[in-house]
Amino acid sequence: MPTISAGALKRMLNLPANVVIGKPRIERDRGGADVAVVPVRPYARDLNRCAECGGHGRPYDRLPARRWRHLDVGCAKLLLEYAPPRVDCAEHGVTVAMVPWARRKSAYTRDFERQVAWLSVHAPRSAVSALMRIDWKSVGPVCRRVADELRARQGAGLFDRLRSIGVDETSYKRGHKYMTVVVDHDRGRVIWMHQGHGERVFDLFFRELTPEQRASIRVATGDGARWIDECAFRWCPTAERILDGFRIVSWATDALDKVRTAAWREARRKGVAGKGAKDPIKGARWALLKNESDLTAGQKAQLECVANTNETLWEAYKLKERLRMILTNRRRRMPRPCCADGPRTRSSQASRDSSRSARRSPDATSTSSGPSTADYPTPDSRPSTTRSRPPSRSATDTANSTTSSASSCPNAEDSTSNSPDAITSKPDR
């Protein structure tokens, strides 16, 4: 029966080159499951090295055999076994000798800890502990050791060549517990985190930077918080303060929803919708706030109903879509100014509310690139449920579908002809 050589087994287990392996054996754990045990030891030249500094020390004594958890072999756990000596280091005193396959004060190998750390980024801790078959409390220390090693390997270069940074706070656990996070937009990675939020916490980040590193920052993105502006201006006076496009769109949608609420209250006060009829404005909230590419057939019909029944709300919707188009499609040719077409109605309330929110930051016109979205309708276009119909349909089918689309808004025609005051408001004076 063919057997696997020691060299091939070492390559399969991805052990360091300066490790000698012995004959593996199979044992039973307390639960009766099979466990593979592989004896290992470092090369002679790497024995008696201090785990703190890596320098050679005098042999002090030898500890009993220890085991380190390695990556599983199939469904069986794999353990590396070795009796490490203790050495007397001239700088750090008596300490356990360094082993090349594991970090200091760890019961897991480097490969095992790297896999646990990677899984912790993409899955909750409970799922990681169940998959890797380790204690739930062991996941945090493993991630901390891996992060410390990566941080020590990168050194001060983590803050070098910073040009555009982003800052925001995020909540964790329950209650009002926040953490400030700073990212590097150029490299797309988190470079600094600290518990708490506000000007005092953000100051700690800039204090860790050298004057040259602070001078290299050209752009600082974030929401409209005043403490971000004050810290960025104090530590990086030449940096450009840019608002996050997500925040600007959020302010615009909030202003649009205020216009919708006011239009619905006005229509209800004037009795536009008949008794027992469904108000198209009241049920069109998500149709107005969602992207056009994400609208369902029913929401497209609601949006068409709004365009036919309430000019004020439709103008506010076009303002919101234009703003989204400017933020997400900057390379395209921009439409004419927002208020160039159509009468000045109460939709200017949406622009005033959005401008009031944007004035929280001094550079409200600058935005960071937001998520990519589909093409938006032109400002003068109106949604139509017939836009997605294939050209092969007959005229009879088109007429029937048009009739059904009109029936989805039963009070649109009546409200347009009988109550014009509820549709078009007076222009601003």
Structural write-up:
It is a single chain. A 6-stranded mixed sheet has the order 11-10-9-12-13-14. Strands 1, 2, 3, 5 and 6 form a 5-stranded mixed sheet that branches. The chain starts with 5 loop residues before the first helix and ends in an 11-residue tail after the last helix. It has helices spanning 6-12, 110-122, 125-132, 139-154, 199-207, 211-215, 226-235, 245-270, 285-289, 297-309, 311-328, 348-358, 395-407, 412-418; strands at 19-21, 25-28, 34-42, 58-62, 66-73, 76-82, 85-89, 93-96, 164-171, 178-184, 189-195, 219-222, 240-244, 367-368. Residues 334-347, 358-381 and 384-429 have low confidence and may be disordered. It has 4 domains: 1-102, no CATH class; 104-159; 163-238, Nucleotidyltransferase, domain 5, CATH 3.30.420; 251-422, no CATH class. The protein is α/β, with parallel strands linked by helices. The chain is 38% helix and 18% strand. β12, α7 and β13 form a beta-alpha-beta unit. α2 (110-122) crosses α4 (139-154).
The dominant shape is: elongated
Low-confidence stretches: 334-347, 358-381, 384-429
Q: Considering DSSP H and I runs of 4 or more, what fraction of the residues is helical?
A: 25-40%
Number of strands: 14
Number of helices: 14
Q: Which structural class best describes the helix and strand composition?
A: alpha/beta
Largest sheet geometry: 6 strands, mixed
Radius of gyration: 33 Å
Distance between the termini: 96 Å
Provide the β-strand percentage band. 15-25%
- What's the helix-strand series? HEEEEEEEEHHHEEEHHEHEHHHHHEHH
Tally of structural domains:
4
Mean pLDDT comes to 77
